[in-house]
Amino acid sequence: MGDHPISVRNLNHWFGRGEARKQAIFDLSLDIAPGSLTVMVGPSGSGKTTVLTLMGCLRQVEDGSVRLLGQELQGADEPMLEALRRQLGFIFQAHNLHESLTARQNVMMGLQVHGRGDERLRNEAIEHMLELVGLGHRLDYLPGNLSGGQKQRVAIARALISGPKIVFADEPTAALDKDSGHQVVAMLKALGRERGTTTVMVTHDSRILDMADRIITLEHGRLVRDEGAVATLTD
Ligand SMILES: Nc1ncnc2c1ncn2[C@@H]1O[C@H](COP(=O)(O)OP(=O)(O)OP(=O)(O)O)[C@@H](O)[C@H]1O
């Protein structure tokens, strides 16, 4: 059971100081199976984004344990967190594409951050990734000439181009219609299966739940439901 890409134990998190200090996450423990698509749901303010950012090294783990790819995040120093972040992909609701760069160039940004590879291989990899997300015919389009679903698929290609072991997605389908939302999640799932990537996704979008391997429900910072978990907690 030691090979879970994400293992959380007794995680607590607070925001604010003094009088304003408020607990947002209460004693959360869970293991995420490799290659799975886990969806986190729950009312607004229930702590979904907080958990995602804690697991994704975007927020400091202060109390409890988060082991990500075998590394403990609590007490980890910045170089260690940075090395871990390089193995992760992030997809957010606002796709954050550069409007002045083409689809191809935007995906390249996902590689340049990690600064690897020779140029020809890099271009081939980018084209292949854009083909995989169904945009092989839009390589040189600017975001302004792409639909919402197509832009989000460019963002997915950018998040996946570096071959991340884990993808964290926060409301990736919020701006999309039902079909595009379905397509985007199906694509994430298929790519996960193809590459063994583990995906954790926060969503309000009930239309995509049927594609999840596991659905975790948070309420008031607590895990209240866990459907489809394949692994049981150890220790
Ligand atoms: N930076 C912050 N400073 C203070 N409180 C925060 C901060 N971020 C989140 N919170 C609080 O923590 C709790 C959980 O917020 P979080 O954003 O994780 O919920 P969520 O389930 O993702 O909500 P939503 O679905 O609306 O995005 C809320 O009470 C929120 O007000």
From TrEMBL:
NCBIfam families: heterocyst_DevA
Source lineage: Bacteria, Pseudomonadati, Pseudomonadota, Alphaproteobacteria, Hyphomicrobiales
Location of the ABC transporter domain: 8-233
Similarity remark: Belongs to the ABC transporter superfamily.
Keywords: ATP-binding, Nucleotide-binding, Plasmid, Transport
Protein name, per record: ATP-binding cassette domain-containing protein
Molecular function GO terms recorded: ATP binding
UniProt cross-references to CDD domains, sorted A to Z: ABC_MJ0796_LolCDE_FtsE
